[in-house]
Amino acid sequence: MNLRDVARMLGLTINCITAKPVVEIESTRSLQDALTALSQREVHSIVVVDQDSLRILTTQALITLTLADLDLNTSLADLDLPRVKCIRTTTSVSDALVLLQGSHSRHLCLVGDNKQLQGIISFSNLTRALDPDFSFFEHDISVIESLSDFCQVTEHETLRSAMIKMHLAGHSSCVVNFQEGQLGIITQTDILNALNTKQSLSIPAGQFASTSLTGLSIRSSFSQALSVFQHSQHKRLLVKDEAGQFVGLLHQKELIAFLIDRWRELGLLEDARTESALQLYENEQRWKAVLEGTQQGVWDWNTVTNEVYFRQSQSQLLGCDDTDFNNHLSDWESRVHPDDASKVYARSLSTFKW
């Protein structure tokens, strides 16, 4: 894959990426309700629907509130939850990457033209969608400084101790060292399940750790790391040195963040916007040629505002000039014979999907 191929990939619209289904909850519900929903649906974020906004509650925020001994019966409306960033399906992959990197919650809501939620985008979605063939990166993953930035506990330290270390470091996982030299990891999902089942936070962390881990050499390329993430479906990989010793932890979001910075240095993000604009123009010209060649008319009706956009070919088919229309449904209604109105409306409405 050359640089232009990468720019073209980044210029694609975000709807080419499979988004996760959105888990929603009303702001009148309690923190306990949110905890139960997160655990049952096995997700790390839930969108809190308020009257005039969309907010987000993440597992990381929930852990912080638990450490603060907040009553789980507290209403979500009483929490000062952050607003979730929303993007449209026409947003480019490059712009979504930048917004995701700058998002406090590390999530973006995908909305359609009708402003209805269609899905939620996270680093996991982007990791699975990106092409791992980044052969133009001359370095291996050892250049990622955050590899050595991880928190750890022994198997006998309490779950609360692991939670506190994760909270203070701003991490989403904690490495667990067992006496026999085996390594395990506690993630936010493990903590979420423990909280939902009312487990004591004084239980040793080793009882919650998963030892099913995937390792990666510190000399692995970015392409190899991304490929391992995609095939293992793990969000974190243990990084080992040439002697096979554990030296770090690589999270998929850190890999993507490094790539974003690298793309920015190479000017690929700006190239992607140019590529996206060029593709949009070419598609528009192609569409225009088809309409003119087949003499078909096209119009677009906003059923909320009753604004109607008529292409020139549509106006000509009606024997009118573009200046005869003011882009409103009433322009079209005035040209329908009163005797035909009910039949025309019925046929128009039958084309809608409710």
Which strand order do you get reading across the main beta sheet? 1-2-3
Contiguous runs where pLDDT drops below 50 for at least 5 residues: none
CA gyration radius, whole angstroms: 26 Å
Question: Number of DSSP strands?
Answer: 14
Q: Please count the helical segments.
A: 13
User: How large a portion of the residues is in β-strands, by DSSP E?
Assistant: 15-25%
Task: Provide the domain count.
Answer: 3
Tell me, rounded to a whole number, the average pLDDT. 81
Main beta-sheet annotation = 3 strands, mixed
Polypeptide structure, described:
The protein has 354 residues and is an alpha/beta fold. The protein folds into three domains: 3-129, CBS-domain (Roll), CATH 3.10.580; 141-265, Roll (CBS-domain); 295-349, Beta-Lactamase, CATH 3.30.450.20. 39% of the residues lie in helices and 17% in strands. The protein contains 13 helices and 14 strands. The chain has helices at 3-10, 31-41, 59-67, 93-102, 123-129, 159-169, 188-196, 222-232, 252-266, 268-294, 312-317, 329-333, 341-349, and strands at 24-26, 45-49, 54-58, 86-88, 108-111, 117-121, 152-154, 173-177, 183-187, 215-217, 236-240, 246-251, 299-302, 307-310. The strands form five sheets. Strands 1-2-3 form a three-stranded mixed beta sheet. A hairpin with a 4-residue loop joins strand 13 (299-302) and strand 14. Helix 2 (31-41) packs across helix 7 (188-196), helix 3 packs across helix 6 (159-169) and helix 3 packs across helix 7 (188-196). The radius of gyration is 26 Å and the shape is flat. The mean pLDDT is 81.
